[in-house]
C-alpha cells in the first residue's frame, strides 16, 4: 500500500515512476506488488483488514480451515465478514473467489470481536472465527444463502466444539433464529456439546415457535 511504500521512503511520485519503469505493478489506487509476483492469501487478507473494520474469515470458510467440513470444494469461495457494508476490490476477488457480508451477530464491538483471532495463533496470520463462532455464523445464514441440509451435515461434523465457548457466544447472540437452530440441530445430532449447553440462560425469545419460509421450505424452530 502507499503508506507502506512511504514508510520505506518511496513517495507517491516515485511509486508512479517505478510503475512506469516496470519495477512495480499497480493493482489499484494505492496498492502495488512486484511484477509477476503471485500474491499470497494471508498478506492480502491482512491488507484488507486495514480497510474493512472488523474483517475476518468466518462461517463455512472458517469451519473448513478448522477441519469441520463435509467435502472439499474444487474452488471454495471465501466467506469474509465485517462490521460495515462494503465491496471487496477486484484485484482481490480476481485472484481469490470471495464474498463479503456485513454481519453483526453478537453483542460486541468491531475492535474486540468475540472469539476471532489470528489463525492458529500465528502473528500476522489472517483473523479467523473460532470454530464455535464460525458454526453460529453459518447457521445465521440458513434460509438466506445457506441450505438447511448442508448446515445440518456440518453440525453433525462439529462434535469437537467446546461447549463453554459456545455457551458464551450464544448468550451474546442477537439472533433468536441462530440460537434456536443451534440448539435444535445439536440435539437432533446428539452432539456432545449440545448436552452441556444451558438453554435457560440463552436468548431463545418468546414461547412461540419461530417460523420462516425459504427455498428449503418452512422452517419451524421451537423454543
Which SSEs are present, and which pair or pack?
Blueprint: H1 2-7, H2 12-21, E1 25-28, E2 31-33, H3 41-49, E3 56-57, H4 59-65, E4 78-82, H5 90-93, E5 98-102, E6 116-118, E7 127-129, H6 131-139, H7 148-156, H8 163-171, H9 176-188, E8 210-214, E9 217-221
Parallel strand pairs: 4-5
Antiparallel strand pairs: 1-2, 3-4, 6-7, 8-9
Helix and strand composition category: alpha+beta
> Could you tell me the radius of gyration in angstroms?
20 Å
Distance between the termini: 50 Å
Query: How many structural domains does the protein architecture include?
Result: 2
Which residues form runs of ≥5 with pLDDT under 50?
none
The whole-number mean of residue pLDDT values reads 86
Total helical segments: 9
- Percent of residues in helices comes to 25-40%
Most strands sheet: 3 strands, mixed
Task: Identify the overall geometry.
Answer: elongated
Along the chain, the helix and strand elements come as HHEEHEHEHEEEHHHHEE
Biggest sheet: strand arrangement? 3-4-5
Number of strands: 9
Label this structure with key terms.
alpha+beta, 2 domains, 223 residues, 9 strands, three-stranded mixed β-sheet, single chain
Short overview:
It contains nine helices and nine strands. It has 223 residues and is an alpha+beta fold. Strands 3-4-5 form a three-stranded mixed sheet. Strands 1-2 form a two-stranded antiparallel sheet. It has a two-stranded antiparallel ribbon with strand order 6-7.
Notes on the protein architecture:
By secondary structure, this protein is an alpha+beta fold. It has two domains: 1-37, no CATH class; 40-221, no CATH class. The protein has nine helices and nine strands. It has helices at residues 2-7, 12-21, 41-49, 59-65, 90-93, 131-139, 148-156, 163-171, 176-188; strands spanning 25-28, 31-33, 56-57, 78-82, 98-102, 116-118, 127-129, 210-214, 217-221. It has a three-stranded mixed beta sheet. It has a two-stranded antiparallel ribbon with strand order 1-2. Strand 4 (78-82), helix 5 (90-93) and strand 5 form a beta-alpha-beta unit. The chain is elongated, with a radius of gyration of 20 Å. The N and C termini lie far apart (50 Å). The model has no long low-confidence stretch (mean pLDDT 86).
Amino acid at each position: 500500500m502507499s503508506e507502506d511504500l512511504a514508510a520505506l521512503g518511496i513517495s507517491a511520485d516515485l511509486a508512479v515512476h517505478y510503475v512506469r519503469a516496470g519495477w512495480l505493478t499497480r493493482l489499484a489506487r494505492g496498492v502495488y506488488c512486484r511484477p509477476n509476483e503471485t500474491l499470497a492469501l494471508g498478506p492480502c487478507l491482512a491488507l484488507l483488514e486495514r480497510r474493512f473494520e472488523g474483517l475476518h474469515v468466518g462461517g463455512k470458510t472458517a469451519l473448513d480451515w478448522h477441519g469441520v467440513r463435509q467435502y472439499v470444494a474444487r474452488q471454495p469461495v471465501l466467506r469474509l465478514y465485517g462490521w460495515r457494508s462494503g465491496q471487496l476490490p477486484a484485484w482481490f476477488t480476481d485472484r481469490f473467489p470471495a464474498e463479503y457480508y456485513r454481519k453483526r451477530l453478537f453483542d460486541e464491538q468491531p475492535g474486540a470481536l468475540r472469539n476471532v483471532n489470528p489463525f492458529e495463533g500465528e502473528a500476522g496470520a489472517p483473523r479467523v472465527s473460532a470454530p464455535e463462532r464460525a458454526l453460529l455464523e453459518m447457521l445465521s445464514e440458513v434460509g438466506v444463502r445457506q441450505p438447511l441440509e448442508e448446515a445440518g451435515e456440518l453440525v453433525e461434523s462439529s462434535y469437537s466444539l467446546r461447549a463453554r465457548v459456545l455457551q458464551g457466544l450464544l448468550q451474546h447472540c442477537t439472533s433468536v433464529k441462530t440460537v434456536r437452530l443451534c440448539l435444535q440441530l445439536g440435539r437432533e445430532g446428539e452432539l456432545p456439546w449440545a448436552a452441556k449447553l444451558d438453554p435457560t440462560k440463552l436468548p431463545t425469545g418468546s414461547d412461540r415457535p419461530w417460523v420462516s419460509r425459504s427455498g428449503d421450505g418452512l422452517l419451524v424452530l421451537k423454543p
